[in-house]
Write a structure and sequence with these properties.
By secondary structure, the chain is α+β, with helices and mostly antiparallel strands. It is built from 5 helices and 6 strands. About 9% of the residues have low confidence.
Amino acid sequence: MHGLSFTQLARLHPFHFAVDGRMVVVQEGISLQSIVPQATGTPFSALFTILAPENCTDGQAIRSCLDTVFFLQTLDSKVQLQGNFFPNEDHDLLFFFGGPIAGGACKTSVAAAGQVTREKHRDTVQSRLRLLSKVFM
């Protein structure tokens, strides 16, 4: 079976990251490394705040909001990210795939987030996660 190396994934999805069941970052994309240095091994809550959806502040709550677009902000650099979390239940991981949004766009995007779902991306992402689980796990 062919798959991606961690380096290839980090380049393909430069702002991705994964957290384990304790909500500790276990891997990060190459561009995320430049805005959140040394994220790997650090608790999610020490690096990011979730702007939307509200009340999704821990792993269990995030899992209950998977059909929602997430808006995150880095605590140090205040960079805002928009994307989705995707679970890998076999390995108790949550992957975030997304990217930065332009300054000021977050309020408009957050207001529209309730209408946006990831259904059209679900098959693609699930295929990627199956591939990743064979490569990295």
